[in-house]
Amino acid sequence: MKQTFLTILAFAAITLANAQNPAPAKPQERAVALTGATIHVGNGQVIQNGTIVFDKGVITAVGNGDTPTAGAEVISVAGKHVYPGLISPASLVGLQEVSAVRSTVDSREIGVLNPNVRALIAYNTDSEVIPTIRNNGILLTQAMPLGGTVSGCSSIMHTDGWNWEDAVLKKDDGMWLNWPGYFARSFNMEDFSVSLRKNDNRSKAIDALQATFADAKAYAAIKNPEPMNLKLEAMRGLFTGAANLYIRADFGKDIIESVKFAKSFGIPKVVIVGGEEAHRAVDFLKENNVPVILSALHRLPNRQDEDVDLPYRMPGILQKAGILVALSYADEWWRTRNLAFLAGTAVGFGVGDREEALKMITSNTAKILGVDKQVGTLEKGKHATLFVSKGDALDMRTNVIEHAFIQGRHVNLDDKHKRLYNIYREKYNQPMQGK
């Protein structure tokens, strides 16, 4: 009996060990050279039969096959593709695991005006979702807060690390504002339909925003305020340009009104997130140099009388108008692993050039988030945050990630999806038992 009990305990321990996420990668110990690949730099440039060398987490050389590799560990990736790590903006990855289990949801706080809330410290590096998005080349994510009118601050995180201190790339990159629009959406649980209704709380919410931002602007003009106001202190960077103001707005009129609101307080860096009707405000966005982070393209349009493929064409419409565009899955964290395929969709609906579409999940996103000096493209001096794909990363039929490096660390690509695949492949390859 005792032996049986010990056997059960040992089996349980092995099962639990196998179910855990892989340990974070160790720091890069020696230079690495990837050779023979098609290198997609991320700025529109493509290098055939290229070589990329990196050491101590930083890219030291990018070029053709003649690029020196002396002293480096050479990994041949001939016939494959090297890309900069994809960046997922406006994401709940790491903040939400299972929406029906409250203890795994840490994406919002109680209250309406919460500028001092930091998504950074809620980022869970043990999330089982993180390895699954890493396996599709997403090596950076922007952890954003939800809730209220002013939700709090987001941060840029790596998809590898023991804790948030290890994972963070840029702390508190911007403040999130849910603009009180003219309309509010309501969801019918019986038939899963979405309807619009007048937002009766709009005037009250805007009055509260006016007061809060006026106080924050006055507070920011004081160098060493005593006593310190934590809520207003968190907003200081908006007025100096150190932080973005991310405004969630979808309808054309709301987009215009919200940007005008931000400009009236002298906020220099404004980003529209969602932008489902950004095509109705193209000229305004271009004139005010406002970038847009679009929500998921794989959806129906807002209005019944709009073209059914309008969401698919939106990146191309904005790109051709000269607006800086990035793609996201917003609060649909469980779909984030398919981010690259949104760019692939954009190629077929107006963007045209695959390298331009790639920018929308790499260099464009890095510019919007203010991390383009470190990541977003494969250039000398930038972080060695990149991956190797067997085929085209924007095509779900060929995007098979074989290597991933985050700041030069060779990341383990095991995840729950792969483990389940192997378990059930083994199960259904076995002959039927019993009957």
UniProtKB/TrEMBL annotation:
Instruction: Check the UniProt entry and state the signal peptide residues, or none.
Output: 1-19
Gene3D superfamilies, per this entry?
Metal-dependent hydrolases, Urease, subunit C, domain 1
A Gene Ontology molecular function term for this protein is:
hydrolase activity, acting on carbon-nitrogen (but not peptide) bonds
A Pfam family annotated for this chain is: Amidohydro_1
InterPro entries on file? Amidohydro-rel, Metal-dep_hydrolase_composite, Metal_Hydrolase, Metallo-dep_Hydrolase
Assigned keywords, A-Z: Hydrolase, Signal
Q: Does the keyword Signal apply?
A: yes
What protein name does the entry list? Amidohydrolase
Task: Give the species this sequence originates from.
Answer: Fibrisoma montanum
